[in-house]
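=== RUN LOG ===
request id: a7f3
mode: sequence -> structure
chains: 1
length: 212
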Amino acid sequence: MQSTRLSLHSILTALEIDAACLPLLEQAPTYDELVRAHTPDTIYTAIHAVGDTLQVAPKARQLVENLEERINIIIHKLKFIADENKPRVLFLSNISPVQLINDTYLETIARIAGGIPISASADVANADVIVVVSESPIPRLLTAFPVLLTQPEWAQTAAVKNGNVFIIHHPNHLRQPGALIADDIEILAEILHQKQFFFGRDEDAWMKFEGY
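=== RESULT ===
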C-alpha cells in the first residue's frame, strides 16, 4: 500500500507562514518522520513540530485543537454504526483504464468518515460507493464514465445501481495528508452518510456523477 507524503505546504498555509520557510523544515532532523504522517494523531504531532521549529507554537496548538474538534464531531456521530452497516468505498485514480488507489491516508480517513475502504481489485463488485480522485480533466472523466459503468462487472455493483458514484474535483482535497485532514474527512462523511452530514462541500469539492 502506498503512503502519500505529508503536505507541509498545507500546514504552512494554515499557519499563515510564507512557503519560503519550507527549507527550514526540510533541514530539520525530524523531517523524514514528519512527511510520513497520515493519521490524525501523527498529523497533529507534525503540526506541533512545525510550530515549534518556526516559533509559532500557539498558532499550531490552535490549529490542532480546531482540527481535532471537527474530526471528533464526526467520530462521535458515527460511533454506534456497526462495521457491517458501513458503506464499502472504492477509490479510483483513473477510469480509462481503471486504476484503484491503495493509499494509507485515504484508507485512514475513509474509516474515520464511516466507510470500509476496498483495497483489492477482486473486491470491486462489493463497492457501495465509488469515489474518483483523479488528475484527469473533468470533461474527460465524464466522457469515459458511461462506457465504464455500463460494463456488466460495474453495472452490477451497488454503487452504480444506487447512483453512488462521485468525483472529487478540487485539486487540494483527498490528495495528501496535512492541514486539510478535517476537510477531507468532512467531505467523505458527507458523501458516505448524506443523511447524517451536510457540509455543503458539493459546491466546491465533489460532484455526483449522474450521466448513466
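=== NOTES ===
The beta strands are 88-95, 98-100, 116-118, 129-132, 165-168, 206-208.
The mean pLDDT is 94.
=== END ===
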